[in-house]
Amino acid sequence: MDSIESSSSSSSSKTASLNPIMSKLKVAGAFSGIIEVDLDNWTIPMLREEIAKRAKVESNSINLICAGKVLKDGENNQKLIDFGIKNNAKILSTKVSSIDQGESLKKQFMDEDERSSRLDRIRAATEALTRRHADGSLPLPEEDYNIELEDQSGQKVHMGSEAERRGAMMGLMLHAHAKNLIKRQMYKEALDVLSMGEEAFSLCDSKFLEMIDNVPLLQIDMVWCYFMLRDIKWLSMAGVRLAKSREGIERCHGKDLIRVRVLQGGCHPELTLYMRLELLEAVVAYHSGQYDNCRKALTSAQAKYHQLQVPDEALSLLMGMGYREKEAKRAMRMNKQDVERAVAFIIEEREKRAQRMREDMQRQKEIIEQKRYGMTPLKKAVNIQILDQIVSIGFERSLAAEALRRNENDPQTALDDLTNPETNSSIQASINERKGKRLRQATTAIIEELVSMGFERSRGCITCLIGYDILFSLFLVIIYEKATITYLYHLLRV
């Protein structure tokens, strides 16, 4: 009996070795279905070959992803189990196009050169803008804006060094440009610009960056571009960026939004940002095989989505009061659907907006005034605050401005020049000379404009002696022409 049992056990072990335990893999993508494999004996090339055969494509055109990682051919003939693949694991198979690879490669190189050239132009333009706004230089004539940073309470943030100011401004401008590219669905170009923006922000002190949420927002936009490009190689980086973004937002806004609520007067901040963050976190968790985290993130995002829904009755009530739909919705979301608090919020926001517009208009007036005074020897604008202080003492504004311009905005040296009769008269002569130069330039421009309309240069010069406005000069020329024609008509009749 012992010999019989021994022979039967050896027989069963031989059968087990001949029939290995097969595991099931759930495949989706280029091929969808279940494949039975031997995890202890199969390799990545064998799995790729099997999936390619079932998908009826070449094996070199298939990429395999499991738990957020691209499966590459292992060294020393590694088996599937060595890659952490287990029974019932999910495998994502993506198809890589191999049509016209030569032409595609050539086009890719050309596109890469073009994109690189375009990025260089964007960087150069942004750096030029940053220098003008950071070092006190005046904007160009076509620039009708001024760049300033504000924290969550709306207070202006003052940066320390010029390098920090330039880095922050450059980052803001690049981020704004990238948002426009995202709206136009140019995700690859937007990703390049966002990377430059991230590099620009890295020039700033970490303590300064903690006060603003621009960097976490930039990280979220980068992850959005990753997913819109549908390139699985960015999956691991997406998880890292989202973790940094959440950390930055919580540090900036406070845990559970406590800090930002205090800064915003008890108003509940908008949840759109957090809903978007959690949706992206859910996508990363799903493709990484973290299904519990995925479910948790989706549940939280769904709850925030419901909080963002504004009741039609409340919206109609606010719009009936004369408020716009957009500001009414935002006010309701910021104040937990409380109509009374929403009305107070809208009134306060409008007052803030009006105050900001007044400040912007005042700044525009200052810029126009600074352009009229000209630049200092080091290409800086005249400091209006110092100018106001000198004018308050009793000096004429144009004289004080010229003194500051000559002395690089040094108030003490400017006062010395203004109180010295010799330098004072020199400043006055310089102002008169500049006024005459501007007058001659304006006259020449009007004459050339009239000549381009077909009038004789001599008549243009005559009218410019009377009026220096182009419309008034044109009116005088037409009157002159009409009077001449009328005189000739009467002369011929006689």
Features:
494 residues, mainly alpha, Ubiquitin-like (UB roll), Helicase, Ruva Protein, domain 3, 4 domains, five-stranded mixed beta sheet, 66% helix, disordered C terminus, Ubiquitin-like_domsf, transmembrane, membrane, transmembrane helix, polyubiquitin modification-dependent protein binding
Please provide a written account of the structure.
There is one protein chain. With 494 residues, the chain is mainly α. It has four domains: 81 residues, Phosphatidylinositol 3-kinase Catalytic Subunit, Chain A, domain 1 (Ubiquitin-like (UB roll), Roll); 156 residues, no CATH class; 46 residues, Helicase, Ruva Protein, domain 3 (Orthogonal Bundle), CATH 1.10.8; 65 residues. It has a five-stranded mixed beta sheet with strand order 2-1-5-3-4, with helices on one face. Helix 3 packs across helix 4, helix 3 runs parallel beside helix 5 and helix 18 crosses helix 19. The N terminus and C terminus are likely disordered.
Beginning-to-end CA distance, first to last residue? 154 Å
Helix vs. strand class: mainly alpha
Can you summarize the main beta sheet? 5 strands, mixed
Number of strands: 5
The proportion of strand residues reads 5-15%
What share of the residues lie within helices? 55-70%
Number of helices: 20
The best one-word shape is elongated
Radius of gyration: 36 Å
Transmembrane segments: 465-489
Protein name: UBA domain-containing protein
Domain UBA: 309-349, 381-421
Pfam families: UBA_7
Topology readout:
Elements: H1 2-18, E1 23-29, E2 33-37, H2 44-55, E3 62-66, E4 69-71, E5 89-95, H3 101-134, H4 162-183, H5 187-201, H6 206-209, H7 214-229, H8 235-253, H9 258-263, H10 272-287, H11 291-308, H12 312-320, H13 325-334, H14 339-373, H15 384-393, H16 397-406, H17 411-419, H18 421-452, H19 457-466, H20 470-493
Parallel strand pairs: 1-5
Antiparallel strand pairs: 1-2, 3-4, 3-5
Helix pairs in contact: 3-4, 3-5, 4-5, 4-7, 5-7, 7-8, 7-10, 8-10, 10-11, 12-13, 13-14, 15-16, 16-17, 16-18, 18-19, 19-20
